[in-house]
Design a protein that fits this description.
Blueprint (H helix, E strand, L loop, with lengths): L5 E6 L8 H13 L4 E4 L4 H4 L9 H12 L3 E5 L7 H6 L26 H18 L5 E5 L11 H15 L2 H8 L26 H29 L5 E6 L7 H5 L4 E5 L11 H17 L5 E5 L18 H11 L2 E6 L26 H15 L12 E4 L2 H9 L10 H14 L4 E4 L10 E4 L7 H12 L3 E5 L21 H4 L1 E8 L6 E5 L7 E4 L2 E7 L3 E6 L8 E8 L2 E6 L5 H12 L15 E6 L2 E6 L5 E3 L2 E3 L4 E5 L2 E2 L2
Helix pairs in contact: 5-8, 6-8, 8-13, 10-14, 11-12, 14-17
The structure holds alpha-D-galactopyranose and zinc ion.
């Protein structure tokens, strides 16, 4: 797969079978747009099997052949993301049951039961029919399994699967009762059949149950994906598979799913040019996702979807300004993408997405801005072929753990108005990105070796084994950053007894005394004791009071009953050091904080400080210098137009 960067789009020729002229034109125009791959037939089930058992694949065969003859490869989709009406009608069990136990009607998409044996069987028949016919076609380089897996089903089949999953995890009902602390409100279970998934009419108080339900849903979703993968591999053992994932998606633990696929990919739809965010902030937020999707496999990924112009589903679906499609495509590559693809190739005529941007619009022209810019990006990606496959150096890692997020956000606690886990992560990430430091994401199963800096924001649920890894990491010379609301509960969401942050007290050189929730906008002033720290900062969201047990305070709270308590502390832990942050501070704080933390520890992508809005990203021997701003920028002798990206290979400018 190496040796080139992929450029392409979702291709849905099933919407155009009555227009052979358009299908001809498509291939011609794809060549002009420097397209070398398409994700084919993602929602084509009703065309592939218009009546039960009546498989119609010839149209697809001719599409694949025509693409292949034009040098365009296929990422062949399994169409399981949307099932045909005949199936929903004949087999109600394939339709999901909502949390309120009402079965859905036919409609929409991505709403089938992941447990249903009927659905799995129908999917098997379809996937294997496709695999038999196309699996060995030289044009098929990848399988696109379904589409944007997500959601949950509460049908009887799923309830049973949940109970079986619990039996597996805990061995016995006693184990379940213990893990969920069911003595509370007299919730002891005496029969597995009494256990039901969370519901507005039922359970929403047993945090352990809710957490395990989320784990189960994630497990079942990945299990369904594996089912599809294995059906294909039964016919074509060497088949490579990918799935397209989503922005800050909560419903699946992508670290787990990533273990089961060959290629990670995600669908990137930031609203560029929105008045509530600087362009640099939008760029950093997007970069953070690129880095997450690189990290879940530790290897290059694809940006499977993006719009070349606008979406149609945002509150205001802004058009990308001239240059932005190229900027965002190159940005994906800078962060580890080996593919930049769009949704979709040709704009639909009707239904939900008729106004969603596409490479080819309703006008069908190739001289409009969207097409011209897309083709230009395709050309640039060809020039950047040497970047393909290039890995990123390990520098800093941020812990983003799905179980932690699920548990923390479900818990009734000091602040139920929103904890903003992603917001917290963003502040750390943005500061590192602005300092030109490459960031990976890790979870509690990850190996921390090779990283110089590990940041663990709001690690409320801290597993014993991961606490051990963090301690060892610092002892052996690593730099660790831990925040408030960490080390509170174990992996069953049971509170640790004794001093907290559990497992990290010796490493941090302090212990938690109290924690207080802050209203939006409410903060406590903090002042610096250390000259390298910002002179003052405002702590908010959750403010912790801690007692020092060996750590050095770098900043302290300066008001209220918090006064004098450490706001920022540092502790030499073995050969390394550990920092502690007692609250969430304003974004600028983190830039100064990480400048201090990273100094002499990590090498930034650019040797000198960069002007606001300019970001530097390193990918192996390549460095990308991006002007993420609406005004021209000057970096040494390099003049960058708005949205321009300069690329350097081992110091030499190649773009
Ligand atoms: C998602 C889907 C696509 C399309 C786009 C529109 O990412 O995977 O099928 O609906 O959104 O933005
Ligand atoms: Zn179900």
């Amino acid at each position: 797969m190496n040796g080139r960067l992929w450029h392409g789009a979702d291709y849905n020729p099933d919407q155009w079978l009555d227009r052979p002229d358009i299908l001809e034109r498509d291939v011609e125009m794809m060549r002009k747009a420097h397209v070398n791959v398409v994700s084919l037939g993602i929602f084509a089930w009703s065309t592939l099997e218009p009546r039960e058992g009546d498989y119609q694949l010839d149209w697809m065969a001719s599409v694949i052949d025509r693409l292949y003859a034009a040098g365009i490869s296929v990422d062949l989709a399994t169409p399981s993301g949307a099932r045909p009406a005949w199936m929903a009608q004949k087999y109600p069990e394939v339709r999901r049951v909502n949390a309120d136990r009402v079965r859905q009607l036919f409609g929409d998409r991505q709403n089938h039961c992941y447990t249903s044996p009927v659905y799995r069987e129908k999917v098997r028949l379809m996937d294997q029919t496709l695999a038999r016919r196309f699996g060995r076609h030289p044009g098929v380089v990848m399988w696109h399994i379904s589409n944007e897996f997500g959601g949950e089903c509460h049908c009887a089949l799923c309830q049973q699967a949940f109970r079986d999953w619990l039996k597996d995890r805990y061995g016995s009902l006693e184990g379940v009762n213990r893990a969920w602390n069911t003595k509370f409100w007299s919730h002891d279970y005496t029969d597995f059949a009494q256990i039901e998934s969370p519901s507005p009419q039922g359970e929403h108080a047993m945090h352990g149950l809710i957490l395990d339900w989320k784990r189960f849903v994630s497990h079942q979703t990945t299990d369904f994906m594996k089912w599809e993968r294995d059906c294909i591999r039964e016919i074509v053992p060497e088949a490579k598979v990918c799935v397209n994932m989503m922005y800050r998606f909560d419903g699946v633990d992508y670290f787990d799913m990533a273990k089961e696929i060959d290629l990670a990919s995600w669908d990137s739809y930031p609203t560029w040019h929105k008045p509530t965010q600087t362009l640099e902030e939008t760029a950093i937020d997007t970069a953070m996702m690129h880095d997450l999707f690189y990290s879940i496999k530790g290897q290059p990924f694809w940006q499977m979807e993006c719009t070349p112009s606008m979406t149609n589903w945002q509150s205001v679906s802004k058009n990308k300004k001239p240059g932005m499609n190229i900027f965002s495509g190159l940005q994906a590559v800078a962060h580890g993408a080996d593919g930049v693809l769009y949704f979709q190739w040709r704009q639909s005529r009707g239904a939900f997405e008729k106004f969603h941007g596409a490479v080819v619009g309703h006008d069908g022209r190739e001289d409009n801005r969207v097409f011209v810019e897309t083709a230009k990006l395709g050309e640039l990606l060809e020039r950047l072929a040497p970047v393909a496959g290039e890995r990123k150096e390990k520098q800093a890692a941020i812990v983003h753990d799905w179980s932690n997020k699920w548990a923390m956000e479900e818990a009734q606690g000091p602040r139920n108005a929103g904890l903003g886990y992603w917001e917290e992560i963003t502040r750390h990430y943005a500061a590192l990105a602005r300092n030109g430091i490459g960031v990976d994401f890790v979870n509690q199963d990850s190996d921390l070796s090779g990283y110089k800096l590990v940041v663990a924001p709001m690690l409320y649920m801290l597993r014993e084994d991961f606490a051990e890894k963090l301690r060892a990491f610092a002892e052996q010379g690593g730099t660790l950053v831990v925040t408030y609301w960490s080390g509170v509960v174990d992996e069953s969401d049971l509170c640790y007894l004794g001093d907290t942050p559990h497992g990290l007290i010796d490493t941090l050189g302090l212990r938690r005394l109290e924690i207080d929730g802050m209203f939006d906008g409410e903060t406590r002033r903090c002042v610096a004791l250390d000259p390298a720290m910002p002179r003052s900062a405002q702590g908010g969201t959750l403010c912790e009071v801690a007692a020092l047990e060996g750590a050095t305070p770098l900043m302290v709270y300066d008001e209220d009953y918090f006064k004098g308590s450490p706001a920022v502390a540092m502790h030499e832990a073995g050969a390394g050091r550990a920092y502690y942050l007692a609250a969430r501070f304003e974004p600028d704080f983190y830039k100064a904080f990480y400048a201090r933390v990273c100094d002499a520890l990590l090498t930034p992508a650019w040797p000198k400080p960069l002007p606001d809005g300019v970001l530097a990203v390193r990918r192996g021997r390549f460095t990308f210098l991006e002007n993420a701003s609406d005004v021209p920028a000057q970096v040494d002798e390099i003049a960058l137009a708005p949205y321009e990206t300069a690329v350097f290979e081992a110091g030499e400018r190649i773009l």
